[in-house]
Design brief:
The protein has about 290 residues and is α/β, with parallel strands linked by helices. It has nine helices and eight strands. The protein is globular and about 50 Å long.
Length: about 290
């Protein structure tokens, strides 16, 4: 089904005389120019009983992008690495998200396996390190491991809160979707769900979320009604960027910790200059 989606996108572009590869190249070049790169965030969340929730990549990606933007993540794990290398040779699970996220040695049916599941972090390797047991930034491995554990707990808690807030709004608007299995504990969520919280009294209404579609080259932007356009620093931290490929989401983060993320205005200006097609869904619109 995922391959069929990709093929359908290409057929639609070709029918309108568009070259998907060319558009994707423009999208990639724009991200590079902004100093941004995808980072793997995994797909296994945790519920209130600390049970695994599969297909949680959308909410984990939102959580990582948001927490990174406000400087809440402390470990070296969130210095972006090459997403191509991270995903090389990894297959897809039957429900869409990467099967590697079920863990090497973990049962594919999602049964809990503490040894295999013990921390399926966005990246299980540090960014290098010296022979004295310290990382390139001078942080010792034990300290970084503790920071990773704290980051992971914060990410999972934030992702779960986002899931509850967003899906409650979706079900309130479309109760029949829950009955039909389109929304649920382990059902793949999609960025379209953001439409239902853009004008809500929640944190999400203060965000602008740009989703870079790796199948079409399009960029969908969801702008909350309370997005702080007049405050540059706040606008920068509240502009979230995600990558979507059929069946999986990833956060897009600055290439290095000393590279600032773009605010929404800067992002849209770069997309316009590169002739990347984007659509803004504005929570302030009537």
């Amino acid at each position: 089904e995922l391959q069929e989606h990709r093929n359908l996108v290409r057929e639609l572009f070709q029918a309108h005389g568009a070259d998907v590869d060319s558009i994707l190249a423009k999208q990639t070049k724009t991200l590079e120019g902004l100093g941004l790169r995808p980072k793997e965030a995994g797909s296994l969340g945790r519920n209130e009983r600390d049970e695994v929730i599969r297909n949680s990549c959308f909410y984990l990606s939102l959580a990582v992008s948001y927490l990174s933007g406000i400087g809440a993540l402390a470990s070296s794990d969130y210095n972006p690495t090459d997403e191509t290398e991270e995903r090389k040779g990894k297959g897809k699970g039957k429900d869409g998200d990467d099967e590697r996220d079920a863990g090497e040695g973990e049962k594919k049916d999602g049964a809990d396996d503490p040894a295999a599941e013990s921390e399926r972090r966005p990246s299980d390797e540090t960014d290098g390190g010296g022979g004295d047991g310290s990382g390139d930034d001078g942080m010792d491995d034990d300290t970084d491991a503790l920071l990773k554990e704290a980051d992971e707990a914060l990410i999972h808690n934030t992702a779960l809160q986002l899931k509850r807030i967003i899906e409650a709004a979706v079900v309130a608007a479309h109760p029949e979707w829950a009955e039909r299995g389109l929304v649920g504990e382990e059902v793949q969520a999609f960025s379209d769900f953001l439409v239902y919280v853009l004008d809500s009294p929640t944190l999400v209404s203060e965000w602008a979320v740009a989703v870079f579609d790796a199948a079409s080259g399009f960029v969908d932007v969801y702008k909350g009604k309370s997005f702080p356009e007049d405050d540059d620093d706040w606008a920068r931290s509240n502009t979230l960027t995600l990558r979507y490929e059929p069946g999986h989401y990833q956060p897009i983060l600055p290439v290095s910790t000393d590279k600032s993320r773009p605010a929404l205005g800067d992002l849209l200006e770069a997309l316009t200059e590169a002739e990347v097609i984007y659509v803004v869904t504005d929570g302030k619109a009537d």
